[in-house]
Amino acid sequence: MILAALNRRIELVHELHRHKRESGYPLTDPGREARMLGELRSANAGPLGDQCLQDLLQALLTLTRVEVARLLSGDDAAAAASR
Question: How far out from the chain centre does Cα 26 lie?
Answer without folding.
Answer: 13
